[in-house]
């Protein structure tokens, strides 16, 4: 699967190639029908068990703006958004994800979505009135990987708050940036997403060809979604962007002042993959939220694909922080179109946690050197700390 001879090793330690060298032995069939023309990730519908607690976390702590709310759901958006919402918090009995939602370029693209997924044999439901407030004619599907995807064209426009500096908080969340999905077979997921029109920007592999994760985009950033190898289908995280690193540090300070620093799961730090500065939080139900800034432009048609060696400990953290085990093992359930949790299928390929955990002494900083000091060896390896 991987031929390093077809890649160029950069001075930063990762490889680049013209196309993603990822091929599946068990591909999803490519439909004859054209895929819908997807624009970007737009919103996620989260089911939460305590609407009051979730409102406190997302509104009072993270500063998202309430578009509207009732006793059953809260519709939230970030500063730069002009569509009705980026996040729906819906009260329910089980914490899970009800929809990963994408806008399409035209009304005809909804017809294309129906044809594309019908040919794949997926369950498809279309509602001209929409599934949630603020969104019109929509198509929801249970995709070949088991995820609930939504495509929409019509939406209610609301005021973009970019000029309302009087409303800004020190940790202002300005836009929804991406989703991250957990799936057992990453190459299979990549092939399906490429058929849907996504392009790979970065991936993590080993020399034997095992693919551990891949990042894919429609808008010209590093990703609109990523496929992380693990037991799935599950949702790893939803991510909002800030303008600067200091906004992320302000969120950490605020959580500390509220005596809620336990909501910080990982970070702050800088990723090797995507080059972004990040922070991972867990909401009251355990849903993972990333806050993220300063990735890079990927919109040129010849944008090179970045491949990281799984044993390069700087792939996940460019400096400093080991990846905690929960980041690899825990994720949110996803629902079918009836609202029932999808069964979780175990990954059979090697797991990234099994072969290495971030900056932990089981990887390299400088290839060919035993460069990890004793005080870092085995850090956060499951069971090592006992």
How would you portray this structure in words?
This protein is α+β, with helices and mostly antiparallel strands and about 375 residues long. The protein contains 6 helices and 20 strands. It has helices spanning about 50-60, 110-120, 185-195, 245-255, 325-330, 350-355; strands at about 10, 15, 45-50, 65-70, 75, 85-90, 95-105, 125, 140, 150, 175-185, 200-205, 210-215, 225-230, 235-240, 265-270, 275-280, 290-295, 305-310, 330-335. The protein has a 20-stranded mixed β-sheet that branches. The chain starts with 7 loop residues before the first strand and ends in a 31-residue tail after the last helix. The model has no long low-confidence stretch (mean pLDDT about 95).
Task: Please name the defining characteristics of this protein.
386 residues, alpha+beta, 20-stranded mixed β-sheet, 20 strands
Helix and strand element order: EEEHEEEEHEEEEHEEEEHEEEEHEH
Number of strands: 20
Beta-strand content estimate = 25-35%
Please summarize the sheet with the most strands: 20 strands, mixed
Report how far apart the termini are: 38 Å
**Which overall shape is indicated by the principal axes computed on the Cα atoms?**
globular
| Tally of separate helices | 6
Q: Indicate the low-confidence ranges by residue numbers.
A: none
Q: How much helix is in the residues? A: 10-25%
Q: What integer is the average pLDDT? A: 93
Q: Which structural category do the helix and sheet elements fall into? A: alpha+beta
Rg estimate, integer Å = 20 Å
């Amino acid at each position: 699967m991987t031929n390093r001879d077809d890649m160029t090793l950069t001075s930063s330690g990762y490889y680049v190639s013209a196309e993603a060298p990822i091929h599946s032995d068990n591909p999803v069939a490519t439909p004859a029908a054209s895929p819908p023309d997807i624009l970007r990730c737009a919103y996620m519908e989260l089911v939460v068990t305590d609407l009051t607690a979730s409102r406190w976390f997302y509104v009072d702590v993270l500063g998202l703006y309430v578009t509207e709310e009732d006793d059953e759901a809260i519709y939230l958006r970030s500063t730069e958004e002009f569509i009705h919402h980026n996040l729906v918090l819906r009260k329910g009995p089980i914490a899970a994800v009800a929809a990963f939602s994408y806008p399409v370029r035209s009304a005809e693209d909804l017809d294309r979505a129906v044809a594309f997924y019908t040919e794949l044999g997926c369950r498809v439901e279309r509602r001209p009135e929409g599934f949630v407030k603020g969104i019109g004619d929509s198509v929801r599907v249970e995709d070949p990987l088991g995820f609930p995807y939504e495509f929409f064209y019509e939406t209610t426009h609301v005021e973009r708050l970019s000029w309302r500096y009087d409303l800004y908080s020190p940790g202002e969340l300005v836009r929804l940036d991406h989703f991250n999905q957990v799936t057992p077979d990453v190459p299979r997921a990549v092939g399906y997403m490429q058929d849907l029109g996504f392009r790979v920007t970065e991936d993590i592999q080993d020399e034997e060809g095992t693919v551990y994760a891949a990042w894919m985009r429609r808008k010209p950033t590093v990703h609109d979604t990523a496929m992380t190898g693990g037991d799935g289908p599950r949702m790893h995280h939803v991510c909002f962007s800030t303008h600067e690193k200091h906004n992320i540090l302000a969120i950490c300070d605020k959580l500390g002042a509220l005596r809620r620093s336990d909501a910080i799961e990982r970070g702050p730090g800088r990723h090797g993959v995507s080059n972004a500065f990040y922070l991972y939080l867990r909401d009251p139900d355990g849903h993972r939220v990333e806050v993220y800034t300063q990735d890079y432009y990927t919109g040129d048609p010849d944008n090179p694909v970045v491949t990281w060696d799984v044993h390069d400990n700087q792939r996940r953290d460019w400096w400093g922080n080991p990846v905690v085990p929960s980041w690899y093992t825990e994720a949110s359930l996803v629902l079918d179109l009836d609202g029932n949790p999808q069964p979780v299928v175990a990954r059979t390929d090697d797991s990234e946690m099994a072969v290495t955990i971030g900056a932990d002494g089981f990887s390299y900083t400088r290839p060919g050197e035993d460069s990890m000091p004793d005080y870092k060896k085995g850090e956060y390896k499951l069971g090592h700390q006992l």
